[in-house]
Amino acid sequence: MRACLLLCAFAMMVAAASAQETVAIDGGKVAVPAASNGVRVFKGLPYAAPPVGERRWRAPAPVEVWQGVRSTSEYAPNCLQPKLYRDIDPFAPAMSEDCLYLNVWTATKAGEARPVIVWIHGGGYRAGYGSEPRHDGTVLAKKGVVVVTINYRLGVFGFMAHPDLTAESEHHASGNYAMMDMIAALQWVKRNIAAFGGDPGRVTIAGESAGSDAVSRLMATPRAAGLFHRAIGESGAAFGTMADDTLAQAEAKGLAFTKAMDGKGIAALRRRSSAEILALVLAPDGNWDFGPTIDGWMMPASAADIFAAGKQNDVPLLTGWNADEGILFAGVLGTDTLATALQKRFGAAAPAAAAFYPPPEAEARARFAGDMVMNVPTWSWAVAQTRTGHAPVFLYRFDQVPPIPADWFGKDFMGKYVGAFHSGEIPYAFGHPGIMPGWKPSAADDRVADIMSSAWAAFAANGDPNGSGLPHWTAYQPAGQRMIFGPKTGEARDTDAPRLQFWREHP
User: Sign of the C-alpha dihedral, residues 153, 424, 429, 482?
Assistant: First the structure.
């Protein structure tokens, strides 16, 4: 009798396993996770083969086929990176060079085709990952969006160029592997997102900081044509006052890195462990900063030149920045006073520029740094699209001061007001400021988050952030109306435009 009961129980388990709901995607079948509050989260889906060994510093290869049913219950490892920022913990859950995975949040029902947001994380192209808690797509999924967050190769693994790599490339270019990863993820979305209830004809690319910069580059590159239909950029764009490296400059940097390792070339470097390579990047005497390159193929020219020629991927654009971006970037000025920084940047026009940065000194330096690093590039991107694009632009400024603990940026950080700081808007755009550890959002924070995430969802659906119950948002023209998210959410004239235009008029 006991043996019969055990056999029957085993048979029931086998039957349940065989009846497990699955989704077929590139590479094989994945398990459908249980829903929580109506939302299913598919974690750790591969969108390319592991970029390891001989695949290091190559374009992403197709997904490797697997047998059986792949679990979707755990996030995949984060791409290799140092711990650079207090609010990005790369060690949770883990790190690996095998990191080209994405995650999907969906609340769709059978037969639906909902708009899709593909989120590209920030972190200076050196840090960050798609499964950071603040990127949780649950709220947006409940508002009718299928949310996809991705990992992409970072730093030396994502951007190093080298003459040997250029020679082996059929496109005679190297570097920009991270951008190739992003495009591979978008191609995966185009082929597979319908299986998750997403509409491959309504894909929005979105990102913050380096992720926003990447969105502007994806709008610029012909390699991403047809893979997305709207764009959202939060604080950042490839329209800065400093030019990207040329391919020759990037190759020289790669040669120097190879020499510093062992001087034996790319073949030998591909045999070195990822830990050894990362250790060299982090060496005290190193100064390795790898980023996007004007390589002639992925980026045939600068983003500014491509937009000026009207050759961008012409899609609706929603973009903006935070009121106090410069609080976290004042360090880029080193020990320079504001007067010195103005003189270095504007020369003879420095006295006129000073009128835009009234005292006190600390606050003025922060405003200057915020303009230099984030505001001018982002505003320039918006203006470029208004001038040569046919699709509309919607501009915003985020003024809400997040409810952070006093030591959020460390006990020794400035020790004072940080305001609407860089990256502070992310949990609001995702609709959940309370997800951040130690944050204690008020009703006002929740209200801003609800409006902002609803506008993002409306934009993903229609290419227009207007919708029922939302404040009216007029398409932008330079110095025209923009949206303010904050204590007084609503439209207001772009009072930053004269200051930012001054920067563009005095390159």
Answer: negative
Selecting among 121, 135, 229, 422, the annotated active-site residue is 422
- Name the strand (E) or helix (H) holding 370: helix 361-370
Give the pairing of strands 69-70 and 28-31. parallel
Point out the catalytic residue in the list 121, 162, 174, 209.
209
Largest CA distance in the chain: 96
What are the beta bridge partners of residue 96?
79
Domains, the chain, ranges and CATH? Answer: 74-505 (3.40.50.1820)
Provide the residue type at 145 as one letter. V
Of 97, 132, 208, 325, the catalytic one is 325
In the residue annotation, 472 being an active-site residue is answered as no
Task: Measure CA of the first residue to CA of the last residue in the chain; give whole Å.
Answer: 87
Find how far residue 465's CA is from the centre of its chain. Answer: 20
Q: Per-residue pLDDT for the chain (507 aa), expressed as one digit of tens each?
A: 444 444 444 343 333 444 689 999 999 999 999 999 999 999 999 999 999 999 999 999 999 999 999 999 999 999 999 888 888 888 877 999 999 999 999 998 767 899 999 999 999 999 999 999 999 999 999 999 999 999 999 999 999 999 999 999 999 999 999 999 999 999 999 999 999 999 999 999 999 999 999 999 999 999 999 999 999 999 999 998 678 999 999 999 999 999 999 878 899 999 999 999 999 998 887 778 999 999 999 999 999 999 999 999 999 999 999 999 999 998 999 999 999 999 999 999 999 999 999 999 999 999 999 999 999 999 999 999 999 999 999 999 999 999 998 878 765 555 457 899 999 999 999 999 999 999 999 999 999 999 999 999 999 999 999 999 999 999 999 999 999 999 999 999 999 999 999 999 998
325 tagged catalytic? yes
Q: What is the pTM of this model?
A: 0.95
CA separation (Å) from 15 to 10, 19, 230?
9, 6, 44
Residue 422 annotated to the active site:
yes
The residues, any chain, with a CB within 8 Å of residue 236's CB and separated by 6 or more, are 122, 207, 208, 209, 210, 211, 212, 213, 216, 374, 377, 378
Torsion of CA 471, 473, 474, 476, to 10 degrees: 150
Would you give the DSSP letter of residue 301? S
Give me the half-sphere count of Cα atoms (radius 13 Å) on the Cβ side of residue 282: 12
C-alpha of 42 from chain center: 20
